[in-house]
C-alpha cells in the first residue's frame, strides 16, 4: 500500500518547512521527510534573520515543525532513498515506506567537508567558523586566522577583515606564488598578514581555541579561525530524476527557474539544494516561492482537467 499526497517535501530544514507551511495553508495534503541533518546544526545561534537573530537553529526548526503541523502537514523522521517518476512520483523511504506525490520539493541541502587539520572538526561552529556574515559580529575585534584551502581563500581573508583588524592568512597548502599581484596588494591594503607554511594543528586550552600551530612548531596566538569547507551538494534524488545540473566552483547544482522549478516537470528545489550560499533567510524565501508556484501549478492542472471533462460532457 502506498499513500498519496499532493506534495512530498524531501528535507525538513528551513527551505522544506517554509514550503510546507505555504502548502499546508493552501490546503494541500503535504508530507515532509526529514533526515534530521541540518547544515547549521553545529552553530549555537543563527544570525541575520530579521526577528529571529540569535535564535538557536534547533529551536527555530522546532517552532517551524509545530507551525506546519498546525495546518495538517505530516512530518516523518526518515530518509528518502529512491524516487521514480511515472504518472506521479514514488518516493521510497529508508524505513520501508513508499509514498506517492503529484509534485516534489527537494530541499536536501548540502554537507560541508572540513579541512583535515586536527582540531578543526571538533571546534567547527564554535571558534572555527566559515561565514563572517553568520558569526562575524559575535567574534569581532578578536585575533582571526584564515586557513587557505585554495588561492580563492584570499577572498575570505579580505572579507573577514571587516570584523577584525588582526587577521593572519595561513597559506597552509597554498604556495605564495599562486597568489596574484592584485591578491597580495589587497591583502596588504587590508592589513592582513600572510603566513606561509602548512598548519599542523589547532591549539586548544580550557575548551577554547588559543592558537594555530604550523608544521615547524611555530605557534600563532589566535582565538578564531575561519575555514572554507568544501560544499558537497546532496543531489542524488535530482540526478535519479534526470534533472539538469550546472557546474559551479562550489559543486554541481540543479538548473532552476526563479521559482525553483528544475528541468524535471513537477520537481522544485530550494535552499542549499540550489546553491552553497543560501543562508537561512534565503532558504525560507526559496521554499515559499517554490510552494506558491506549486499551488498555482496544481490549481491550473486541475482546472484544465475539469474544463476538459465539461467539454466532453457537453458533446455527449
Automatic annotation (TrEMBL):
Keywords from the UniProt entry: Flavoprotein, Membrane, Oxidoreductase, Transmembrane, Transmembrane helix
Reactions the enzyme catalyzes: [thioredoxin]-dithiol + NADP(+) = [thioredoxin]-disulfide + NADPH + H(+)
UniProt cross-references to InterPro entries, sorted A to Z: FAD/NAD-bd_sf (IPR036188), FAD/NAD-binding_dom (IPR023753), Ferredoxin-NADP_redctase_2 (IPR050097)
Gene3D superfamilies assigned: FAD/NAD(P)-binding domain (3.50.50.60)
All copies of domain FAD/NAD(P)-binding, residue ranges: 6-285
Membrane-spanning segments: 6-24
UniProt protein name: Thioredoxin reductase
UniProt source species: Streptomyces africanus
